[in-house]
Amino acid sequence: MARILVLNGPNLNLLGTREPAVYGSDTLADIVGRLERLATARGAAVAALQSNAEHELVAAVQASKSTGTDAIILNAGAFTHTSIALRDALAGIGVPFYEVHISNVYARESFRHHSYLSAIAAGVIVGFGAIGYELALDAALRKLGR
Ligand code: DQA
Q1: Of 81, 101, 102, 134, which is best to mutate to test ligand 1, by the most ligand atoms within 8 angstroms of its C-beta?
Q2: Cα–Cα distances in Å, from 52 out to 30, 73, 79?
Q3: Tell me, what's the pLDDT at 109?
Q4: Per-residue pLDDT tens digits for 30-56
Q5: Rounded to the nearest whole angstrom, what is the distance from the C-alpha of residue 2 to the centroid of ligand 1?
Q6: How many A from CA of 61 to the centre of ligand 1?
Q7: Pick from 20, 32, 39, 146: CA 20 to 30 A from residue 130's CA?
């Protein structure tokens, strides 16, 4: 069974009420629930974690190797634009990851245009709203041959 880890970074716990014009009205629980149902229908399993703390995200990435995670779907939020530590963790484990951004970061402030993660991602999905997570799940499972 394919195991997919869905990791969300800072402030993504606020989805549903956070700047709905930018991020939509789905809560993170709505998004994770859909991913769980889609994964189950395809014989895969989803584990999900959200944290506002960089060290917890780094720890989750490091742990993913020993728990047999096949792919990571990652919306690192603002850490995308700042975190060399998260990039190093991802580079160090060899588990493919798919970077997701709900908003089109390239249509926003210039500080959102650079990602420390994209160059080592298996794929990047930007600006499709909450369904970006589902697109990433589909891509990850297809790549894994499921
Ligand atoms: C985001 C874009 C980031 O720039 C921002 O800091 C977020 C959310 C997105 O999903 O569009 O927290 O990753």
Answers
A1: 101
A2: 19, 16, 10
A3: 98
A4: 999 999 999 999 999 999 999 999 999
A5: 27
A6: 19
A7: 146
Q: Look at residue 146 and tell me whether its pLDDT is greater than 90.
A: no
The shares of helix, strand and coil residues in the chain, as percent rounded to the nearest 5, are: 50, 20, 30
CA 104 to ligand 1 centroid distance, Å: 9
Going from the C-alpha of 72 to that of each of 10, 15, 110, 137, 144, the distances in angstroms are 17, 20, 26, 9, 12
- Over residues 69-94, the pLDDT tens digits come to 999 999 999 999 999 999 999 999 99
Contacts of range 60-64, beta carbons closer than 8 Å, 24 or more positions apart: 60/5, 60/7, 61/7, 61/86, 61/89, 61/90, 61/93, 61/95, 62/89, 62/92, 62/93, 64/5, 64/93, 64/95
* C-alpha–C-alpha distance, residues 85 and 87, integer Å: 5
